[in-house]
Design brief:
Blueprint lengths: L2 H8 L9 E3 L7 E2 L6 E10 L10 H18 L3 E11 L4 H17 L3 E9 L4 E10 L15 E5 L4 H10 L6 H7 L5 H7 L5 E5 L3 H10 L4 E5 L7 H4 L4 H10 L5 E6 L1 H4 L5 E8 L4 E5 L2 E6 L2 E4 L2
Parallel strand pairs: 4-5, 9-12
Antiparallel strand pairs: 1-2, 3-6, 4-6, 7-10, 7-11, 8-10, 9-11, 12-13, 13-14
Helix pairs in contact: 2-3, 2-6, 4-5
The structure holds adenosine-5'-diphosphate and magnesium ion.
Length: about 300
């Protein structure tokens, strides 16, 4: 199967997608963005053995590659529109490609994003780069830099599931809610779009809540205080380890792809699915408490402050 045939068979679909004048098959895609909107551009690469285990189901690799990009669009308050895919493969295995394309279009269809082009090359490892263009109302994009002292700090969904899931996956378990949370992160597009023009700052949590919240605070030179006991923990995670282990996964485990953002409480009072975990402060550090006790949180977990 040559490259042309591969693209035609697995990636080219007839569609009348939003704003697509010319899609796959030309030297470039021609798009007709809404001129009354601003565009949000994101890109992310997943490398075999680095971002996913070697034996990961190709449908999950593809779904995840799309989802992590959607998550960046969500964090900016945008709506995803168009996607390109650069795919490097050691060989063109039909079964692998079929599964990969199924996962890719599952995510694309779920979030209404059109695949409009890409590049296919051979190389020693599977490398998947997805780029997505989204749209957002002018001036409404949520940047990292807008947190103000006194703003409330919120998160979406539950935390720690993906980190626990990755551990289970590495032990060979796959049919588990927690594993699914790692393999198929839920991009918070609807909540993200609802936050446009309302949240003061936002980040999607890929590297762990404590670290990513510190990035959000640092972008403005402010600090924060959070109450660890407020962190949303799923029922599945509660069954997976001690309370200390749960909080450790929730604070320091990556890959949840939930949103963490700051806002005035009034501005987001009508949005469902949020948990307030703390508040932005003037000091330039993140203070964490657990049931009133000050605890120190670093990359490997937390400990009670002596
Ligand atoms: P060129 O020779 O102009 O670089 P290619 O042969 O790489 O073109 O690609 C032909 C067409 O197929 C282009 O429209 C390109 O965007 C699209 N394409 C290539 N690889 C992929 C892919 N993995 N997914 C989606 N579209 C792809
Ligand atoms: Mg060309």
């Amino acid at each position: 199967m040559d490259e042309f045939e591969l693209i035609r068979r697995y990636f080219k679909r007839n569609s009348d997608a939003y704003g697509v004048v010319a899609g796959i098959g030309d030297d470039g895609a021609v798009l007709a963005p809404d001129t009354a909107q601003q565009q949000v551009q994101v890109i992310d690469t997943l490398v075999e053995g680095v971002h996913f285990p070697h034996d990961t189901d190709p449908a999950d690799i593809a779904y995840r590659a799309v989802a992590v990009n959607l998550s960046d669009i969500a964090a900016m308050g945008g709506r995803p529109r168009w996607m390109t895919l650069a795919l490097t493969l050691p060989n063109a295995n039909e079964q692998w490609l079929e599964s990969f394309a199924a996962g890719l279009f599952e995510a694309a269809d779920e979030f209404d994003v059109a695949l409009v082009g890409g590049d296919t090359t051979s190389g020693p490892l599977v490398v998947v780069t997805v780029s997505i263009t989204g749209e957002v109302r002018p001036g409404a994009a949520v940047l990292r830099s807008g947190a103000k002292p006194g703003d409330a700090i919120y998160v979406t969904g539950t935390f720690g599931d993906a980190a626990a899931g990755l551990r289970l996956l590495q032990r060979g378990e796959s049919n588990d809610d927690l594993v699914q949370r790692f393999l198929r992160p839920t991009a918070r597009i609807e909540i993200g779009a609802a936050l446009a023009g309302k949240a003061t700052a936002a980040i999607d949590v890929s590297d762990g809540l404590a670290g990513d919240l510190r990035k959000l605070m640092a972008a403005r030179g402010v600090g924060g205080e959070i109450q660890i006991e407020r962190l949303p923990i799923s029922d599945a995670l509660r069954l997976a380890g001690s309370e200390e282990q749960q909080y450790q996964w929730a604070l320091c485990g990556g890959d949840d792809y939930e949103l963490c953002f700051t806002a005035k409480e009034d501005a987001v009072a009508n949005i469902a699915g949020l948990t307030q975990i703390g508040r932005v402060t003037r000091s330039a550090c993140l203070n964490c408490t657990l049931n009133g006790d000050v605890v120190e949180v670093n990359d490997s977990g937390y400990r009670h402050f002596q």
